[in-house]
Amino acid sequence: MSCGLGAIILVFMLVKYNVDTTKIGDDATRKAQAKSLKTELSALRSEESKLRSMVSSLEQRNKNASSAIETTSSNLAQIQKNLTSSGLKIKLQQQKLSELQNKIRNTAQQKTSDVIKDTNVGEENYLIGLKVEGRRIAVLLDSSSSMTDEVLIDIIRRKNASDKTKQSGPKWLRTKRIIRWLLARLPEGSKFDVISYSDKAKTLGEKGWKSSKDPKLIDAVRRDLDSLVPEGPTNLQVGLKALSRPTHVYLITDGLPTAGDSNYRSLNPFASCNSLWGKSNTISGECRLKLFQHSVRSSAPGSGVRINVILLPIEGDPAASIAYWSWTSASGGMLITPAESWP
Question: Which CATH number does 123-336 carry?
């Protein structure tokens, strides 16, 4: 029995030794493990700090991105609103354009009341400011030799040439186009008369007032115009005397008169104007102006008659435009010096 007890004591001692040895080994392990854990914990904390920083950076980026998205969405909404508004405006403009096009298509073209047609004086050649109007319209045409050309040397050359050469002068051809232009635009219901003058006055077509509704009467005037030869002096006075109570006068000329129809020898203002009683072949600009003023004073239609003058160019007659402008302005009419391309 003692042997058994001894064995038990021996076992107890061995066990106690192992326990004590194990305790010593566990403390070291725990310390090592604690140190390892601390190291890992420090690493984890460092990693956590990095992750938190990354998360904060990502959150800030997300916040910035959200703000940018919100701004972009707002801009897109505004753009969409503007596009919608522009689309409505474009649609409205297209609708107005369509209505205007329909209105233009449905509007009947206004036809001119021209009694005769002349392809050489179309609608595009209307002269701004000049309108043919009046109840009794007198067209007074200067058919003197100066109406053939603009330069004096050319006028003198044609003056001594054949009738055909005189009639083919550029200024005369233009004058005939102007007469046709006026005749083509006589107002409905008016009466007209065309009178040419040089040293004498001559009625073109039938004598007296003619109806603007009758194309045959107008054609007769045009035939006489085609046969007319520009020659002789410019006697405005005989032309004015041939007028028969017109309401409107359209005078086509190129300058002041060179001859008259009075006894100028007895008139003091013309004492120095020898050409007016046959003692000189030339007349000065001063005498031409006096002659014009006398002709208008003594022979022009009375008050209430509107005078319109179409003044064509000529060399060496600077006082003409001022004189004719004063006359037309006083009557309520107008002076026109048209461009070379008209009519």
Answer: 3.40.50.410
